[in-house]
Amino acid sequence: MLASVHHHPAFASSFLFPCSHGYPSPRRQSPPTGLDLNRALIKLRRPRGPRPMAFGSNGGEPEVGERLYLGLDFGTSGARFSLIDKRGIVHAEGKREYPLFMSEEKMDWARSWKATLFSLLGDIPSHLCKLIASISIDGTSATTLIVDSNTGEPLWRPFLYNESCPDALPTVKSIAPPNHTVCSGSSTLCKLVSWWENDDPNKKSALLLHQADWLLWLLHGKLGVSDYNNALKVGYDPELESYPPWLLSQPYSQLLPSVRPPGTSIGHLKEDIRSDFGFPSDCAVCTGTTDSIAAFLAARATQPGKAVTSLGSTLAIKLLSTTRIEDARFGVYSHRLDDKWLVGGASNTGGAVLRQIFTDEQLEKLSEQIDPMEASPLDYYPLQSVGERFPVADPNMAPRLHPRPESEVEFLHGILESIARIEAKAYNLLKELGATQVDEVFTAGGGARNEKWTKIRERVLGLPVSSAIQTEAAYGAALLALRGIHEK
To answer: Whole-angstrom Cα distance, residue 88 to residue 302?
Structure first.
């Protein structure tokens, strides 16, 4: 496991957050559970190999009596933590890659996530642990575990976020409303139905949990609790605050967890974990959210019309709206954020296309020569491969990167501008579907560092565009932990 830890109380920003089938059960080859496993994992707190690197800062320590709030982000390839105070100042942060644990020649993800959780807890500076008032965790959306309702042990290997279960899709489409969020092969409900139809003998004692739910259970010990962001793709209706009748009438509805708002205190941290890691006795554990929602919260886009565009390998947008939008044709769905809705969609265009053509050095040097105030006449649709999902739903759409000019500067300019046009079309589609009109865009991801691209996007969108001060999902999870305490 690779780890790095930063301890830097001087890093500050204002607090604006408003108050296919699986394989046999890994239990056969799993390590000890409960207290024995927790104590075994304590050994990861101070690894015998390369120790986590710690970096000091010029900032002061927390004030006397001040409490801190811990957020943990479990992403696709690794996990991070962020420790903040009530003003949003970061006092420590760190990250770890997932360790490679194998079971029957397959990656044992549950064991890996569990080990990473306790490793991150051990990476937190001990003098700060005793100040932590609450904890929250975000996980990848639609990453699903079927566990024993008595022990919490996985009955099946986890279904990952991007895993599709096309075998279950006809069944789900036959019970759900047209174009519902669950009508996608990668939805949580499709994963549940796929497992259910596999004739597993443990159906009566089974329980569905999302990745974040299960990791939080390891901390608070109360099985069967989720949040309405993670539960959206299993069919939970956050507007009605209940599972719909068409879902409750199914035999597998007995596996569904109870649902609470994100950032709600569930209970106190388990005693053995408190004593082993030095947490205070009143440390609370709060319901979590998905990684993309946590990243949005980190950007502090708190008013309707504010949006976050993530320019990473793909182009993803999320807009805070007063109106809920759902349209599975475009992969558009809405997460509830208090009394508002976070409407989102993702295109297959993005930075991965640029990386196929240019090196980082070329991107930097060529970008410097672009005049962002001059519109490019080139009309491209940059894709890695055939198929687009948003803002155009066309599985047969072919990449379009011709004609290619002799000038590499003009070529890059054309690609950057074309991606900006796709972004504009995406926000226009959300408006056409009934969402609040966007009035300001914050940018996350690697593309946020390209100043010329930002100016191109400002011109094409006709909106102010700026980089988000905070983009780490762990920071957003820490805000949820803070909220959980302040709303108790």
So the answer is: 15
Q: How many CA atoms lie within 13 A of 53 on its CB side?
A: 3
For 429-472, how does the pLDDT look when each residue is reduced to its tens digit (9 = 90+)? 999 999 999 999 999 888 999 999 999 999 999 999 999 889 89
Q: What is the helix (H) or strand (E) element at residue 451, kind and residue range?
A: helix 451-461
Structure tokens at 4: 């790095």
Confidence of residue 393 (pLDDT cuts 50, 70, 90): confident
- Residue whose tokens read 């975000």: 138
Q: In which region does residue 232 sit, left (phi positive, over 0), alpha (psi from -120 to 50) or beta (all else)?
A: alpha
Cα 69 from Cα 53, distance rounded (Å)? 22
Q: What is d(CA 287, CA 272) in angstroms, rounded to the nearest whole number?
A: 20
Query: Please, which pLDDT band fits residue 105 given cuts at 50, 70 and 90?
Result: confident
CB of 81 closer than 8 Å to CB of 72: yes
442 is written with which tokens?
């914050």
Q: In what order do the strands lie in the sheet with 340-347?
A: 333-337, 340-347, 315-321, 306-311, 440-444, 465-467
Question: Which tokens hold the place of 186?
Answer: 């990668």
Cα–Cα distance for residue pair 118/113, rounded to 1 Å:
9
